[in-house]
């Protein structure tokens, strides 16, 4: 599973990152990897974001910040609280295999796909 945290629906960086994950979805499917995006936005915001941007992968609303906090991905900018742009690659047993912090949304999907290939090659070699 690719569990990625992002700051805010319908902002430029978050939209770019989501589009790239969507663009590469078939490649993730080939690697049996599910994409799940998480932000502290509410369900209505996620629904609008998915509809507007034609996103077909899951977005988790973490309005109470529980999941975001548990992954150490809560960021405070003055009065505003958002999810930090972090990604976790989680294997089928629930073990975190790779962590990305402060990612570049423009090239992040390619980085994740490369890491998945590397992780799966290591697993297959065992």
Explain what this protein looks like in three dimensions:
Strand 2, helix 3 (about 45-55) and strand 3 form a beta-alpha-beta unit. The mean pLDDT is about 95. About 40% of the residues lie in helices and about 25% in strands. The chain contains five helices and seven strands. The strands form two sheets. It has a five-stranded mixed β-sheet with strand order 3-2-1-6-7. A two-stranded antiparallel ribbon has the order 4-5. The chain has a single domain (about 1-125), classed as Glutaredoxin (3-Layer(aba) Sandwich), CATH 3.40.30.10. It is an alpha/beta fold and about 130 residues long.
CATH architecture tag: 3-Layer(aba) Sandwich
Number of domains: 1
Number of helices: 5
CATH superfamily, by name, is: Glutaredoxin
Average pLDDT figure: 94
Structural class, judged by helices and strands? Answer: alpha/beta
Give the strand order, joined by hyphens, for the main sheet.
Answer: 3-2-1-6-7
Straight-line N-to-C gap: 20 Å
Secondary structure: elements and pairs:
Blueprint: E1 2-5, H1 12-23, H2 25-30, E2 35-39, H3 43-53, E3 58-61, H4 66-70, E4 74-77, E5 80-83, E6 87-90, E7 96-100, H5 108-125
Parallel strand pairs: 1-2, 2-3
Antiparallel strand pairs: 1-6, 4-5, 6-7
Annotation keywords:
5-stranded mixed sheet, 41% helix, Glutaredoxin, two-stranded antiparallel sheet, single chain, alpha/beta, 126 residues, globular
């Amino acid at each position: 599973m690719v569990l990625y945290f992002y700051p805010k629906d319908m902002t430029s960086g978050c939209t770019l990152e989501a589009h790239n994950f969507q663009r590469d979805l078939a490649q993730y499917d080939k690697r049996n990897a599910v994409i799940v995006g998480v932000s502290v936005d509410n369900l209505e915001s996620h629904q609008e974001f998915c509809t507007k941007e034609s996103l077909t992968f899951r977005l988790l609303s973490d309005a109470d910040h529980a999941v975001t906090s548990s992954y150490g991905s809560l960021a405070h900018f003055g009065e505003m609280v958002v999810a930090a742009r972090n990604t976790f690659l989680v294997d089928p047993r629930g073990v975190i295999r790779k962590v990305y912090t402060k990612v570049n949304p423009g090239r992040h999907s390619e980085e994740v796909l490369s890491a998945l290939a590397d992780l799966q090659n290591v697993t297959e070699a065992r």
